[in-house]
Amino acid sequence: LRIRVAGRAATQVQLHRILELSELEHITVQVIPFTHEDFAGAGSTMVHSGGSLPQLDTVVRDAPHGTAFVDSEAQLEHFRTLFRRVRGEALPPKQSRDLINQLAKEL
User: For residues 73 and 55, is the Cβ–Cβ distance under 8 A?
Assistant: First the structure.
């Protein structure tokens, strides 16, 4: 959220779009702030797609060697555990939105 890929105006648009999407019922945005220095283990992008049948869950992970799709039960359990840690460390949705708003105002 703090790393600018484009200029100030584009970054503000991106942050406001995240805020807009976070208001949708089916989307939850939670932020792990830099002040949580001891948090480690989520060094790459991960997306968990799951539903009512856990055996159909898939994790999509971006890695230096490319995108990896994970669907074996042992690997899925590892990522479920990691996602639980991430959710536990992250700010609640309202506080996450407040932080994103603050970052947008600082630009």
Answer: yes
